[in-house]
Amino acid sequence: MNANQQLQHDVESLRANFTDTQDLYREVCAMMFFRHGITPTANRLYQLVRKGSMSAPAAALAQFWEDLREKSRVRIEHPDLPDALQATAGELLAALWREALSNANESLAMFRADMTEALKEAQAVSVEHQLMAKQAEAESEQVKDALQSLQREYDVLEEQLMAEQSAKLSLNARLVEIQAQRDELSASLERARLDFAAELEKVHQAQLLAEMRYTDLERHALLDMDRERTTSAKTKKELENLSQSMTKQLDHLRKENIKLLEQLAEQGRNLGKFEGALGEARASYLHLQNELVLCKQHLIEREANLVALQAENIRLKAPARNKQQTGSTNKPKRTPKTKDNPPDLSGRKK
User: Fold this and answer.
1) Coil, helix or strand for 341?
2) CA torsion angle for 11, 13, 18, 24 (degrees, to 10)?
């Protein structure tokens, strides 16, 4: 441990024993002067102790030298000392006192200069710190204002976010409901499409049946016309009218079928109008059924009229045939066609 460390260690030991600032400075002066042989100065004392104000070490140092002078004077004026020794000691102490006082004054002047410079630097630093503090305070106010503004914006954004989340939940619920409605509508539309397809197939089958019936009737009528060429012009005209009527009915049925197919295509493009189109299709189907019933009734009436006309024609031709049979006895007799034995209209030859 070097001298400076030992001196600092002794100062710390005294600091633990003396709580009063002046007492601590006087003890440090005595320790430096008597134990370490160092002339104490105010600047050195303050560097070692660093306690109290700037004037505390100077006051303690002045008191130390005063105490030392008083104590030394008492020892020198002791009556047991010789006069020569008292004079020599007095001169030595006076010289020591002057030297110490000179060193103390120089130290005090240096200390005051250092303290003045340090005070100026401290004041400059204090002014700078005050400016920095004011600037920091202004910046702190700005930061507080900015934080308050950000907090208000955050509150507004949080409220907007909560509103958007609520709206999102509502929209999600609405979307689920709409999807369920869409699925239900799709299922209903599929069932209606299948029903419409079935109804259309029935109409198509009825049309085919009507066409087949018309073809059979036309074939039978042609066969009957071939067998009955001598039928009156009225019967022929009625048959022609019947054929034209059936042709018109067939054309009407074909047009209705084309119209239904067009309506079906329109229903595929525009699902929103399906119910109306389906109602129209059902109405058209009922109309076709009515037309088919009317056509059947008309055909039955025409057949009955044709049978009646054929029977009338046979009845009118019967006397002439009877005359021919009586004039030619060698010819085989034919069974006359009467109401009890009507002609075969099926088109098959016996």
Assistant:
1) coil
2) -10
Look up residue 345 and give its two tokens.
Answer: 């209209």
- Cβ of 66: how many Cβ atoms within 10 Å? 10
How far apart, in whole angstroms, are the C-alpha atoms of residue 219 and residue 194? Answer: 37
Contact call for residues 9 and 1 (beta carbons, < 8 A): yes
Q: What is the CA radius of gyration of the chain?
A: 71
Place of tokens 């016309």: 225
Distance CA 267, CA 253 (A): 21
Q: What residues in the chain have per-residue pLDDT under 70?
A: 1, 71-87, 89-91, 93-95, 97-98, 100-101, 104-105, 107-109, 111-112, 115, 118-119, 221, 232, 274, 277, 319-350
Task: State pLDDT tens for residues 198-252.
Answer: 888 887 888 788 788 878 877 886 787 777 777 767 777 887 887 788 788 878 8
- CB of 101 closer than 8 Å to CB of 65: yes
Q: Which residues contact 233 (CB under 8 A, 6 or more apart)?
A: none
User: Is 195 strand, coil or helix?
Assistant: helix
Q: How far apart are CA 19 and CA 16, in angstroms?
A: 7
* C-beta neighbour count of 16 within 10 angstroms: 7
DSSP codes, 76-137: HT-TTS-HHHHHHHHHHHHHHHHHHHHHHHHHHHHHHHHHHHHHHHHHHHHHHHHHHHHHHH
pTM of the full structure: 0.27
CA-CA distance, 45 to 23, in Å (whole number)?
13
- As a whole number of angstroms, the distance between CA 33 and CA 100 comes to 11
